[in-house]
């Protein structure tokens, strides 16, 4: 007899509610900033962003309402063995990526790694020096290219590690934790928060799936976990301030992007001007993209032949087929020429990238589709214990959390290969017509 448990409407709708709160907060930070008051089309931005987020919400709601089967099936084949294999492969992937990245950017000793981690501003600057050297010398790290092709294993590792934590052997737990530490250290080494952010997002996805799947925790355990999460977020925020302050010192920054001169602020009077700039840069980190969106919306539409939807795909097209770069046709690159808002330095939200191929009206419709896909993936991941849906959910979380910043998953080649791998795996699964889902 099939043991089923109903997935409540509240659990099905919970992700989009949290995302809406996040979007409201980031947008409020922007519209109350000094920079927003100087833009000529703030009202236009407010209307467009509101419609886009509303469309995302209703797409999600429609996906929930039209999903017939909302039961968690308990008698499916145990995925523990497959999950354990993927966790071990993913952990090995993280270790290889981390060590390779540190060596690639000049690490030659543990002392050197620690010194770079303690000076994120200088490390961040050195990263661009290495990039520039690669371009001049046309050098390519072959191992990195192979790892990019295998990005799927990195994308699903942490999610499964969290979901199956209680079922893992101690040695697997220790191996996984060691892999995560090495991976995070490699991004700290180059003064970049991208990899750290991805790991945090994957932890969020795994923990959300763990709770939504009906796993019960004692009240004391729940309090400890939530306390740890809040403490971790606080420490991360402090680290962001430290990182931004270090960059201020390294690059000689005198003002903040959203709030201008903060030398007379309360933060500056207590902690000093450099720390104050770091603080205001940190709180505007997920919000300044709306200013870039405002500048982008002053330009006319010009089709970018897919370069806006996927800059990573365009980079492959340019690499193998040559010709002119279609990135120059995208809103962000044309806006940089017209207004000076740098496409590669400051964000402009993901919307102008999508609009470069879909138009801004098309973006609103696209948000409905993304919301629908998000809802169906969330429900399927829980009801079918579907590992492919776990991986897709991780990418959707990244896409949606970075929405106020940029087109994250299709900006990087890693994200592109995760999606391509998922599509191929799903197609293979359909062709094999298995009785249960992997």
Which labels suit this protein?
438 residues; two-stranded antiparallel sheet; 72% helix; mainly alpha
| Spans where pLDDT lies below 50 across 5 or more residues | none
Major beta sheet, strand line-up:
1-2
* Helical/strand content category: mainly alpha
Strand composition percent: under 5%
Number of β-strand runs: 2
Q: How much helix is in the residues? A: over 70%
Distance between the termini: 21 Å
Notes on the structure:
A two-stranded antiparallel ribbon has the order 1-2. It is 72% helix and 1% strand. The chain contains 20 helices and 2 strands. It is mainly alpha-helical and 438 residues long. It has a domain at 1-74 and 289-388 and 400-438. The protein is globular, with a radius of gyration of 22 Å. Helix 3 runs parallel beside helix 17, helix 4 crosses helix 8 (151-163) and helix 9 (170-189) packs antiparallel against helix 10 (194-212).
